[in-house]
Amino acid sequence: MKKGIKIRLVKNFMLVILITVVIIEIMLINGVQDYYYKNLEDVLTSQIESSTSFYSRYFPSFNLNDILIEDIDIFWRYTNVQVQILSLEGDLLLDTLGVSSNEPITTSDIVKAQNEENGAWVGSVPYSSESVMAVSVPLIKDDDSIGIIRFVSSLEETNGIIKKINILLITIGIIVIIIGGIVSIILANSIVYPLERVSKIAEKMANGQLKIRNDIENDDEIGRLASTLNHMADEIIKREQIKIDFISSVSHELRTPLTSIKGWSITLQSEDVEKDLLLDGLKIIEKESDRLSFMVEELLDFSKFISGRITLDKDIFDFNSTLNFIFKQYMPRSKNDNIRFSVEVDDNVKMIVGDENRIKQVIINLLDNAFKFTDAGGSVELKAYRKEKDLILEVKDTGIGISKEDLPNIKEKFYKGSTNRANSGIGLAICDEIVKLHKGELVIESQIGKGTNIKVILPYEEELI
Fold it and tell me: Is the pTM of this model over 0.70?
C-alpha cells in the first residue's frame, strides 16, 4: 500500500511538473523564434524603407524602367541582402543574385505590397536550401504604386542562434524535470512515511498493544489521524478496564447474597427446624433475593448506559405526585430505621417535562444512599424548588459523610470509597448519567461526621399552555 501511494503521488507530481515544463518550453521556444524573426524583419523593413525614402528624395522623376535601364543602385547600395524589384503584377524584374522567374511571385508579402501595405514572409525558395525571410514594400511615386521592392535574407544564422537557445532551454527543462522528480520523491516520502508509521502503530494496536502511542509531529490530517488513533486506544483501554471492573464487581456483589441464600436453603432443609429459625431464614432469603434483584437491575441499567442504548422517554408529568409517592414509599423505612424523613416542595414546582421513571430512579437511589449511610436518630430531607430557570432537587442527610479523598471520585464507575457500607459502586454513576441525559448536573457536598448534601440541577421544562 505504501509503495502504491508513493508511486501515485510521484506520478501525479511528475505529471504536473511535466505538463508545466512542456507548456513553458513551448511558450519560450516560440517566443525566442518570434523575437529573433521580428528583429530581422524590423532590420529588413528599416533598410528597405531607407532605400525607398532615398529614392523619393533624390530620384522623384525616375520611374521604375528608368531605374532599371540606368542600373541605379539606390535600392541595394546600403544592404548586403538579396534585393528584388517586381512589377505590380508580381513579375520579377530585377534580382541582385541573378535569379529569374517565369511566373509571378504570389507570396503573402507580395500580396500585401500589391495592396500598398508592408508585408513579411518566411519560407523556402527553389534556388536555395535555406529558409529565407522576405520583406516587401510598395514603391510609391506621386502617391501611386509603380512597383514592389523586396528584400530577401537567409535565416541560417538566425535559425542557428535560435537552435542554440532552444537547446539551452530544453536542457534547462530537463534539469527542472529531474529536480522536480527528486523533490516529488521527497514530498511523497514526507507524506508516505508518517502514514507508514501511523499504519504500523495501528497494526500494533489491532494486535493488542494498546499502550503504544503515535507521536504527533504536525497539526495536519495525518496528525489528526494519529491523535484519533491515540484517543481510540485510550477509549478501548478505558472500556476494557470498565469491563474488568464490571465483571469483578458483579462476581463479588452477587457472591454474597447467593452464598447467604444457599446457606439458609441448606439449613432450612433440616427436619427439626424451629419455627422462629424458619421465619428468620425465610426473611433473610427474601431480603437477599430483593437485594440480588436490585443489583441485577442496577447492573443492567449500567450496561445500557455504557453501551449508549439508554434513551429518555420525556413527557409532561405531575412532579408533586411523584414526590408524594416516594414519600409514602420511604416512610415505613424511616420508622423502622428511626430516621426522620421530610419532603418539601415549593408551590411553583408543578407540571414538568422529563422522563418520570428515570428521575424517580435518581431520587430513589439518592434517598437509598442517604438512609444507608445515616444512623438511627439522624434525618433525611428531600427538597424541590425553583432557582431562576433551573429545578433543584436536594437530598440532605446527617449521615457519616464522605471524606475529601473520596469526594472527587465518588461519581466514578465502581468506586466504593473507604466505607464498607457501599454496594456495587455504580448507583451514583447511573444517577450522574441520567442527569446528564436531562442536560443537568449532579453536585455533591459532604463532610465526614456531618452528613452529605446532593443537589440535582435540571433545566426546568414546564407544560406549554
Answer: no
